[in-house]
Records
---
Amino acid sequence: MKIAAAYIRVSTEDQVEYSPDSQLKAIRSYAKANGLLVPDDLIFIDEGISGRTAAKRPAFMRMIGMAKKKPCEFEVILLWKFSRFARNREDSIMYKSMLRKQCGIDVVSISENLGDDKTSVLIEALIEAMDEYYSINLAEEVRRGMTEKVSRGEPVASPPFGYRMVDKAYVPDEQTAPVVRRIFDDFVSGVPTTRIARDLNNEGIRTRTGKTWENRTVEYILRNVAYIGKISWNQSGKKNRTYDSPDTITVQGHHEPIVPPELFDAAQKRIAENKSKYSKNAHPTHGKMFALKGLLRCSSCGAVLCLSQGTGVQCHQYSRGKCDKSHYIRLDKITLAVIEQLQADLASEDRIASVAQKKKAAAPVSTDIQRKIDAENKKLRRAKEAYMAEVDTLQEYKTHKEAIQKRIAELQGQLQETEMPSDEEMQKEFRARLIDVLNIVSDDSASEEAKNDAFRSLIREIIFYRTSGTVEILYR
């Protein structure tokens, strides 16, 4: 009995006969006729998603990830058509080759019987080429239609914040249009985008998609020509920002502006002035390494504390306007606080015992044996599913069941024989590692990279409480 996975994809342009239910029904019928079992947890569905690129299909990537695991839970992947697998020949060839050669997993189209002779390779390649041509041609037709609509001043995208769609046209929204005008007024009067974002979040105002505001979403509002009655669209099909893409088409629309042209121009002038202060990635603190980089966390929102003003750290989300609590502190001061906390933990027997106990509880002891037990239990469930689906007879089910249960008993015996380190050994090991880290981070001759590596070898994250000026260290 072979276990099969089913991959199902339906994009927005597909017809009813290619619905997920229709594909699954056909796949199950094929599986039953060919002695295959398709468990419910091995059905992967990407609905309403294009097949042009594999990376943007979460269910597909999850299936590929499971295929790479040892042992793999399935031996074959069943598809309604090869076009469901990919409409990009590069992706199709790469993933099929990887599955067949590295994982021993075949990819089968249930409606395109290619046979087993050498000509099947040519036929499969021809089908893939036709699928890719169809996908490219369809994209060009859609793009041509959208370009025509834009040229007539008609919208081709969802309405931006401040508008709603009525009869296929943008209409100012009574609730959110005033917020747009306020954003422009505040910005032109000198209020930073981070402050605008923070004020909107504090008032409970959310973006069009229901998310909190950031400095970049405020800037997107300020750069959007829709608010002065124009329509813009990136004809390349790429989801780049329309305001800085050379492929953008901008025409006069038919909808009512929310912002006067002179206010919009004033906002663009101020944005340009702000951008001119630093070239891209030229901020003096960009990319600088420091000992606690990536470890410090804001106690209010949990975001990472990043370098600020060259000599301190600040909450990343506060800098973007999404956190309303400043966590700024000088870098030398926070580094000293962390070292002092490490020294206090080293001097505390209770702290040593507590951390060691947690590490012991989470220790990946005998994970390989447990993984094998889990795999056998899955086989047991599969055997039952095969019997219930009438793929196996009752006698075959009993034989499989007895063999699997015997193997599970053997593995459980091995698991019980595995010895766990004693509490004293765990405490001794943790204390020794803590001393090693302290020696490195307290050494003035050690580089910031070496200190960062030392901290990371022992610490998962450090929470900084700005109000009390204290830190909480969470060990790995």
---
Amino acid sequence: MILSIENILTSEELTFITNCLDTAEFVDGKTTAGWHARLVKHNTQLNAQAPDTKDLKGLVTKALLRHPLLQIAALPKAIHSILFSRYDTGMSYGSHVDNALMGKEFLRSDISLTLFLTAPSSYGGGELVIENVEEERSFKLEAGSAIIYPSSSLHRVEPVTEGVRLVAIAWVQSLVRDPSDREILFDLDTVRRSIFHNQGKTTEFDLLSKSYSNLLRKWADV
């Protein structure tokens, strides 16, 4: 499932992050890429040792965890490996798949997430393209919005032709690792919430809640 999620960040949070990144030290992005991705990765990333890095990661994590749509779609067990990436004019990231396990704790990457930090009108190119057998889907979202998609997907970032593209990248280890199972749970949860909103706690709501809970109990990896 590929899902765009609006308003992850407030305008104040977005301003704070971009102001910090304006004066921060960025380093070659190849340092965090797998051995094959290094061949096609041409961007820079916030220095992990920079003074504001820990606070910025904490702010993004908090914003992601509080968003209800992200919660029901991703069912996060852990949000990890957050990076702040910068693409200046001419930079890109060729077709690649994200590493299955990340960090010293070997956290699984079930879901990849790109949080856009600059307005799409402020830079040319730089679209995130998610590839599959039948088609490619291109995304260039408003600042403060995010796209989530299965980490098993091939994807790329098109060359930036003008301006600067700033994004935060993160990965989710989900309570439910199978993407088709997560989609079933997402659909059920969406419907039962709609019923509750429109009709209250009905028999239909109770039956959907029972099925949702029992499937989550069956599929959850805790």
